[in-house]
Amino acid sequence: MADIGNAGPQGSGTRGALVVGAGIAGLAAALRLHQQGWDVVVIERAPARRSGGYLVNLHGPGYAAAERLGLLPALTPRDIGFFTSVLVHADGREKFRIPAAVTEAAVGNRALSLFRGDLESTLYDAVADLVAIRFGTTVAAVAENSGGVVATLSDGTRLAADLLVGADGVHSRVRELVFGAEPEYFVDLGHMVGAFPLHTVPEHVPAGVGTTFIGPGRTAAVMNLGPQRSSAFFTYRCPNSQAELALGPTAALTAAFGDLGRGVADALRELEADPAVAYFDSVGQIVMDRWSSGRVVLLGDAAWCVTVFAGYGAALALDGADRLGTALAAHQADIPAALDSWERSLRPEVDKRQALARKGMVRFAPPSRAHVWAGELMLRAIQLPGLRGLVQRSIQRANN
To answer: Boundaries of each FAD-binding domain copy (predicted)?
Structure first.
């Protein structure tokens, strides 16, 4: 059995952590712990690094965490910035547009818009030469003893560490092993989400523009931000997520959005040619009374999963990792106490974001045509000078 760090009594040497998951939460935790002198091993079930994904926004605590982690110099050049949003009819004709300046004024200058893959790549580059990363591996068993935690990996390796961080996503293997089966914690919100990069710049979407169709029960967005920077995003209501998953992204998204034209039609044709690039899953939240047990802690989607409807998952992953490091530094001799303190500091923010996501579902998949019209009226209204300040203050309150 190999030891990570000292893996012995607290205070007797370098502490070791095993981080499960090489996504945003896991890599951020690895970086933060390494910065504090921990010996870290990261394991990832995928055989190699993943890239692509949809847009994520870092503002408020998420931006501040990226700053404290030292990521801003590498992230800033990858910032997509603000772009014009165009609401369209089903055939792709323009309804109205929201200039980039409106969003910029509301969010402020301490914000970044990034592709998820760019954020993961930046984190990977920051830790790749500092910590050990093992791909194609996951956890088969977890056991605690008086000196730490022992993880048996899928390749038969046994690793002893002072701390195990489960950052392996909404379908977390660590959560299953330590806390119980996924159905105990997964709350299905009755929607599907699909997102994928576009290798070909969408012909029917103007440069620097994101077009969005919103109809009863569904939203489709296509962004033309130039070569290697364009992407598509879809979400829709569904009564049976398992049936949709069985169809796969191409058949399911085509059935749900195949009647739409222009940019959406372009994106679906590209998906048909390369379905492997798509992220496609049911939308659900993880709801737990506790995120830690002894020396095992869950982080990011494995612990809470606010969903894409919150628009804050990446920010919470960074903020959660940063706060975890702070708590562990403050409770050097008592890891369980550190994890309790960390959870108390973070849970109010997670609860708020999960509640906002549940309320925000009606914006992404309006229940009726009347809800669609009401949403359009609100989007038109925020461009009026008298209401723009009110929107700004609402967004700022949500970010603080």
So the answer is: 18-333
**Cβ–Cβ under 8 Å, residues 16 and 40:** yes
Strands 16-20 and 163-166 come out as parallel
**Residue 72: its pLDDT value, please?**
96
* CB neighbours of residue 70 within 10 Å: 11
Q: What DSSP character marks residue 367?
A: S
DSSP conformation letters of 214-255: EETTEEEEEEE-STTTEEEEEEEE-S-HHHHHHH-HHHHHHH
Angle at the Cα of 316 from the Cα atoms of 313 and 320, rounded to 5 degrees = 140
Token pair belonging to 257: 């959005």
306 vs 294: CA distance, rounded Å: 24
Whether the model clears a pTM of 0.70, i.e. scores above it, the answer is yes
Both tokens of 250, joined, read: 């191409």
Report which of 260, 40, 35 is spatially closest to residue 134, judged by C-alpha positions.
Answer: 40
Going from the first residue of the chain to its last (400 residues), give the mean pLDDT of each consecutive group of 10, the final group possibly shorter: 60 82 97 96 90 78 94 94 90 89 70 90 96 96 90 95 97 97 95 92 89 96 89 94 96 97 94 92 96 97 93 93 96 92 96 92 92 88 56 48
According to DSSP H, which parts of the chain are helical? 24-35, 61-68, 72-75, 100-107, 116-127, 173-178, 241-247, 249-257, 263-273, 313-330, 335-364, 369-381, 385-399
pLDDT at 177: 97
Of 376, 326, 102, nearest to 213 (Cα)?
376
- Sorted by sequence, the CB contacts under 8 Å of residue 302 that are 6+ apart come out as 21, 25, 166, 167, 168, 169, 170, 172, 174, 175, 286
β-pairing, 163-166 vs 296-298, is parallel
Token duo for residue 87: 């609401």
∠ at Cα 386 (382, 388), nearest 5°? 35
- Which residues, 6+ apart, have CB-to-CB distance to 283 below 8 Å? 188, 189, 190, 191, 192, 193, 235, 307, 308, 309
Instruction: Please measure the distance between the N-terminal and C-terminal CA atoms of the chain and give it in whole angstroms.
Output: 45
CB contact at 8 A, 159 and 41: yes
